[in-house]
Amino acid sequence: MTDLPLLSRSVVRPMAWPEKILQFGTGRFLRAFADFFVDAANRQSEFQGRIVVVQSTGNHRANLINAQDGLYTLWVRGLNDGVPYESQTILSPISRALSAHDKWHDVLACARSRDLEIILSNTTEVGLTFDTEDCPSESAPRSFPGKLTAVLYQRALAFDYSPQAGLAILPCELLTDNGDKLKRVVLRTARHWQLGEAFINWVEQANTFCNTLVDRIVPGLPPDQERAAFENRAGYRDELLTVAEDYRLWAIEGDETLRRHLAFASCDPGIVVVPHIAPYRTRKIRLLNGGHTLSVPVGILAGNTTVLDNMTHPLTASYIEGLLRDEIGPTLDVDPDTVPPYIDDVLRRWRNPYLVHNLIDITLHGTRKMRVRAIPSLVSFHSSTGRIPQRIALGFAAHLLFMRGVSQDGDQIYGKLRGVPYPINDTKAEYFMECWAAAPTIRALVERICGDEELWGLNLRDLSRFARTVADFLHTMLHEGMGAAIASCNPHEESNMAT
Fold first, then answer.
1. Residue 15 near residue 92, CB atoms below 8 Å
2. pLDDT per residue over 134-159, tens digit each?
3. Cβ-based neighbours of 158, under 8 Å, separated by 6 or more
4. What φ, ψ does residue 219 adopt, rounded to 5°?
5. Cβ of 85: how many Cβ atoms within 10 Å?
6. What's 372's DSSP letter?
7. Residue closest to 393 by CA, chosen among 497, 313, 323, 498
């Protein structure tokens, strides 16, 4: 494998189209997502533009991208009607990569280009925050909003604040109303830097900050043996090899004018430009993310390791499908005809044998995720039916048991399952450890946690019989195991077990 040539223009020669997009972020998600869409549009000659990518910290990945002339292979792996499916395509949407640290003046030169139309970003959720220590200087600002403010200011000056010089700005960070939030931070930064009212007005009126929702699973690289076999078949080395599932959704909030401006938006069914993306967000957060939040601790306590394990274990697979179809799906305030097909997609994606997604990784900040992604489904179900959703209650009980810390090493708290410790990476780990240590009974433990309004945003004891149902499931898990708890989960009856 080491004797193979590096993927470069000697293998594929990309079209020399103008640089229309400036992208902050060089990671594999954007390569498999936004950059994939741009490449697809270029193949159809609909966009005819390329991307300059900016690495915000260091220059290692930027150097890799430039060494491969912006080329990389997208390896799509999944199931088609239950049959394994894969494809490999060399993509060429990227023209070059710049390090913000080393090539900031080149980044600002892109801002002054007449060809520039769009700015993309994926800098993590924390990246869309105001940095009081940022300041304008000859070098790159520290934060992404600071960098974006500097880029927009250069552009405003270069084109004398012309409304026609405005850009479409599409943040891909996983935050609700990410475009609105980014715009607020940019305006705050502009005021903090005293860049003037003319610039502030230009940012507000000439530029379009789009709220977006992104959804595609982009796992890490396959095992070394699989990667070596791939590169031997391909006849080249690819240091930027990018693996993804086939499913993709990019929901962008905007009107028909924005759709026409984003010339790549009509070239793939995975992109939707609609006036309101809230229904797309609701389906994703409540079904895909909320389904994970509730089923992951159930799977771990049942002895599963990966999402695929959860979908092939007969008990957890049945639990998950019932959870989505019977308890979460009916509570969604969206077009009901769109819910079953979306659930089908979620289940198909989770059954993808090529996506190795460890359950323990999904437990990160599980308590906060439970509040945002699962509790709304619980409340909606109870409000509409007057009953307790049994599978949601079971998942909640499993979270409480997973959060039972039994040891601590420095700041790290550990639980223990079948004698083996596991890390509890949750900001509320210490709180739960103390609750478990102090509670005289299971019922008292559950009553205390359910009644914590600061934790959940409401008093869950106000939901009739919820705390008792959770305590019953927790009692079964502790004394009979997760299998017995799942087996006892009757969605049509309230629990009557004394605890």
1. yes
2. 988 889 999 999 999 999 999 999 99
3. 111, 112, 165
4. -75, 180
5. 14
6. I
7. 323
In order of 292, 375, 394, the CA distances from 386 in angstroms are: 25, 15, 17
Kindly list the distances between the CA atom of residue 167 and the CA atoms of 45, 68, 116, 148, 209, in Å, as whole numbers in the listed order.
21, 29, 8, 11, 8
Whether pLDDT at 499 is above 50: no
Q: Is 417 helix (H, G, I), strand (E, B) or coil?
A: strand
- Return the residue matching tokens 């891909």: 172
The per-residue pLDDT for 2 is 61
H helices present in 207-330, as ranges: 224-234, 256-261, 278-283, 290-301, 307-312, 314-322
Contact 124, 174 (CB under 8 A): no
Residues 133-144 as b/e (b if ≥16 CB within 10 A, e otherwise) read ebebeeebbebb
- The H or E element spanning position 37 is helix 34-43
Q: Is beta strand 208-209 parallel, antiparallel or unpaired with respect to 407-409?
A: unpaired
Helix (H) or strand (E) holding 274: strand 271-274
Q: Cα-flanking dihedrals φ and ψ of residue 396, to 5°? A: -65, -45
According to DSSP, residue 165 is labeled: G
CA angle 316, 350, 466 (to 5 degrees): 45
Instruction: Name every residue whose Cβ is closer than 8 Å to that of residue 281 and which is 6 or more positions away in sequence.
Output: 176, 213, 251
